[in-house]
Amino acid sequence: MSHPSDTPNSPSDRRHSLWRGIELTSALKRAAVAVRDAEAIVIGAGAGMGVDSGLPDFRGNEGFWKAYPPYAKLGIDFASIASPEHFRSDPDFAWGFYGHRLMLYRGTRPHEGFNLLGKWAGRMEHGAFVYTSNVDGHFQKTGFPPDRVVEVHGAIGMLQCLIDCGAGLFPSEPYTVEIDESTMRATRPLPGCPVCGGLARPNILMFGDRWWDPSESDAQAVRFRKWLKEIKGKRVVVVECGAGMAIPTVRGGCQEVARRFGGTLIRINPREPEVPTGHVSLPLPALEALRQIDALIARP
Known about the structure:
The chain contains twelve helices and eleven strands. Helix 1 packs across helix 12 and helix 8 runs parallel beside helix 12.
């Protein structure tokens, strides 16, 4: 038999909820102070940042299959479909997935949180730098300067030649891809290389990808390191939104910047919000957290 104090809405349950609410309020206030006092902001972003814009979350097979039911019927998971081998063996199948993402990201409006981050950056002497594993290009779409963004896994807005004919990278903007959503296969013509006329592929780092051209991502990383040297000794805040532990590139990078500058890391993540001692954990969706922080910043 359960004890009365263990039942839902019991006094102990209510006390716990109240305590959690007090902790969250305190964390939001600390985040607002850190942003208000900073001279520069590093913005980390993972897949959770795009969820509030309506983009799918590929976390786990269930999340992927919910976004793409045809793949559930075929028993194909994200790691299996996100392979560069498909562009060589079955390009219609490969472009079915990446063409759908291309058109989805192109047609999706970034949520208000991007603008809030941009507003905060605009108030700071040294502005912002974005460090993201997302490939949707939504920070640039919102108005962040392209030379202040690092896309560690590449971007769907750029393509490369499948056979590396020497064309380098070229924009995906002129191309549209039509998809049969019942089979998730693309209909031809598929995006082609402007130099040799062969098949093109997205400039995105896929699983087991030996052919990804990292030149743009590498150049972005060089600019980021240069900026970090320029702001040495300044007050830096790190705001990380929706970056999980499955592929911890963004989480690790954000923690390292916070450690290096002695700044505050604000980790916004409803499922994996844990932070090192002394930093700020916000177990909230990105847009909700950013709105609440902004409201506190605006208070006198």
